[in-house]
């Protein structure tokens, strides 16, 4: 099961450390060091002397993505998978994720989940039923879909009063994401799939099976559109419900049918007010076909990935400001690592899925910190943080958006912030969403600040 990340980063402890400065808590926000002007992206962009300078050009980004595929063990090269998957490989994938729980669990009503129920869920994974070899099949995801630790949609929590951290929720996949099918649940309703960035269980109804070339070639089709808002939706159409009001999240790439005749309606509607795009659809027999759909011109999208500039990093991050925190992409939203991944995806940069992999990825410009790094070195690195830098503490990631009087500010998807007055009074803002805050006054435990807990800084640049 997925490690607990992001959620505990702002947990309240009875801490009393003193800070080097007295931070204001504006009455209009109730958050330390943040006033309403700082909730606008332009505030941060205007502070930058080189906001529109390209940090990495298209070729440099392509090389970095190639390094990610070649060097990062959390990334799967679907094109390199063998024609048949051996039992040992598939069992290792499944068993590394679907670990039988050994602690009491609770349902969404706060009731204890019977041991027999958990046993049945684990049994449905059918690890013992993995054949000696299985033909490697491929598919495209047809709508945003949850990735689960076990083949079930039952929500499972570690405590009776928790309603946010579904322990079986891992991540999500999006329309057009390619997958390799590795295993099937005992009830036949789920597949264990391997996507480029994650391997987990998905309901079969969300995946259309197709030829390898068609599946892997979909994401290379040109021309295309890149979704640049937090989410957009295709046009409603009763003629083709499978592509009607389909959600497309930031960074999703969809092919454009540029030669679609202007005289031909698209699903009963003239296409001149929209982009005619091509989407994967699942036939009744589970096979793949492609269908036209309309992406309204009013919905923010771009003919290519946005240039990787500091201004665009800030603009894209602020498109999620205030969105509810969604553990493992729950609540139709995202968590801390999903948030930074999708911001960078809209700029063409691929990142690993989880904080534990992002933080140590050898494909990026990693600055590692250990227990040997004293407060002076840590503060020197913090003062030198640049816009777009990703700052990692155990289980959490923050994106730098600028500095005010030498104090770095970050935007991050978190359940809350904890800080203390000089007299030791504890304060907690349960932000539970994408949040702007200063970095240095935030506390991670009774004795340690966020700065004390930094493990890595990843810099997306040459």
From TrEMBL:
Pfam families: NLPC_P60, SH3_6. Residues 307-461 form the NlpC/P60 domain. The lineage of its organism: Bacteria, Pseudomonadati, Pseudomonadota, Gammaproteobacteria, Lysobacterales. PROSITE patterns: NLPC_P60. InterPro entries: NLP_P60_dom, P60_peptidase_YkfC, Papain-like_cys_pep_sf, Peptidase_C40, SH3b1_dom. SUPFAM superfamilies: Cysteine proteinases. This is SH3 domain-containing protein. Keywords: Hydrolase, Protease, Signal, Thiol protease. Residues 1-20 form the signal peptide. Belongs to the peptidase C40 family. It comes from Lysobacter yangpyeongensis. The keyword Transcription regulation does not apply.
């Amino acid at each position: 099961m997925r490690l607990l990340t992001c959620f505990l980063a702002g947990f309240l402890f009875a801490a009393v450390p003193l800070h080097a400065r007295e931070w204001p808590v504006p009455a209009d926000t109730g958050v330390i060091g943040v006033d309403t002007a700082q909730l606008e992206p332009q505030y941060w962009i205007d502070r930058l002397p080189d906001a529109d300078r390209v940090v990495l050009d298209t070729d440099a980004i392509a090389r970095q993505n190639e390094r990610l595929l070649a060097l990062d063990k959390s990334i799967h090269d679907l094109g390199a998978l063998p024609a048949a998957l051996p039992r040992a490989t598939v069992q290792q994938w499944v068993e590394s994720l679907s670990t039988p729980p050994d602690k009491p669990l609770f349902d969404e009503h706060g009731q204890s989940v019977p041991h027999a129920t958990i046993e049945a869920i684990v049994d449905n994974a059918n690890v013992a039923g993995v054949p000696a070899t299985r033909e490697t099949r491929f598919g495209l995801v047809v709508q945003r879909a949850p990735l689960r630790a076990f083949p079930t949609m039952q929500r499972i929590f570690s405590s009776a009063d928790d309603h946010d951290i579904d322990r079986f929720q891992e991540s999500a996949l999006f329309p057009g994401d390619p997958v390799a099918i590795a295993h099937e649940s005992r009830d036949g309703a789920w597949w264990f799939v391997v996507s480029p960035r994650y391997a987990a269980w998905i309901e079969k109804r969300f995946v259309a099976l197709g030829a390898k070339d068609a599946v892997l070639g979909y994401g290379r089709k040109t021309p295309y559109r890149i979704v640049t808002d937090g989410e957009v939706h295709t046009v409603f159409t009763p003629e083709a419900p499978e592509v009607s009001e389909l959600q497309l999240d930031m960074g999703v790439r969809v092919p454009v049918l540029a030669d679609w005749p202007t005289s031909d309606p698209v699903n009963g509607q003239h296409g001149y007010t929209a982009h005619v795009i091509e989407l994967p659809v699942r036939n009744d027999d589970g096979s793949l076909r492609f269908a036209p759909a309309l992406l309204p011109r009013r919905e923010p999208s771009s003919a290519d990935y946005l240039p990787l500039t500091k201004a665009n990093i800030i603009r894209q991050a602020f498109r999620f400001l205030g969105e509810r925190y969604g553990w493992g992409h729950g609540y139709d939203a995202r968590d801390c690592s999903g948030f930074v991944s999708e911001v960078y995806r809209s700029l063409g940069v691929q990142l690993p899925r989880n904080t534990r992999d992002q933080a140590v990825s050898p494909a990026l410009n990693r600055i590692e910190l250990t227990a040997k790094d004293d407060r002076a070195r840590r503060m020197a690195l913090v003062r030198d943080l640049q816009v777009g830098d990703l700052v990692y503490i155990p289980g959490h990631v923050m994106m730098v958006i600028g500095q005010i009087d030498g104090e770095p500010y970050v935007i991050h998807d978190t359940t809350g912030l904890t800080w203390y007055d000089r007299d030791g009074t504890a304060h907690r803002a349960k932000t539970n969403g994408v949040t702007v805050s200063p970095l240095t006054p935030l506390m991670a435990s009774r004795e340690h600040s966020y700065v004390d807990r930094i493990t890595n800084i990843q810099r997306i640049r040459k």
